[in-house]
């Protein structure tokens, strides 16, 4: 076996005869235990994804460091390796708040190497609620728009991949506190505040 000048694979039959196999034909093979090196062929069609992320950040107010956990999944369509788009959703837990984001995702690989830099951009919104009984009884929280760009690395296999991302997440939130007959006054107390939560997310995921 050897490569000719055009990158096709030359297979010798006899010392005087040989067969040329197009490189794309070999890359599309799906033999069990098949391994390959070099570039990844373009893949198109539907694909699924799942990811786990750790979230760290602050609100637009002068609050302390906040940490959280994100579990999300998505369904997308690949035009090729560099252009993919789809939808995603999941659940995020940040201190006493739970968020259910729903977003459009645009992503892709920057090269055709097996290990390649990748980009991603999530745009959408989130539903929000308190996961604390005391806060639920005395107030409410509403989600808002979501914007989450990211960069990372993708480790490609034949029909799946593992990726690592660092995302900068911006999430709009509205808080409303309602206190009936607060201890220092006979009147009801209502407080509304708009915040912008800014998180740095460290994410590991896979596509299939």
Task: Write up this protein.
The radius of gyration is 25 Å and the shape is rod-shaped. A hairpin with a 5-residue loop joins β5 and β6. Strands 4-5-6-7-8-9-10-11 form an 8-stranded antiparallel β-barrel. It has 208 residues and is mainly beta. The two termini are 32 Å apart.
Quick synopsis:
This protein is mostly beta strands. Helix content is about 5%, strand content about 65%.
Tags for this entry?
208 residues, mainly beta, three-stranded antiparallel sheet, rod-shaped
Strand content: over 45%
Kindly state the percentage of residues in helix.
under 10%
Q: Please state the structural category.
A: mainly beta
End-to-end distance: 32 Å
Q: Number of DSSP helices?
A: 2
How much is the radius of gyration in Å?
25 Å
Number of strands: 11
- pLDDT < 50 stretches: 30-34
Walk across the major sheet and give the strand order: 4-5-6-7-8-9-10-11
Mean pLDDT: 83
What is the succession of H and E elements? EEEHEEEEEHEEE
Sheet bearing the most strands, described?
A: 8 strands, antiparallel, barrel
Global outline: rod-shaped
Outline the fold blueprint.
Elements (H helix, E strand, L loop, with lengths): L1 E2 L5 E6 L2 E5 L1 H5 L17 E14 L7 E13 L5 E11 L2 E13 L5 E16 L2 H6 E18 L4 E19 L9 E19 L1
Antiparallel strand pairs: 1-2, 2-3, 4-5, 4-11, 5-6, 6-7, 7-8, 8-9, 9-10, 10-11
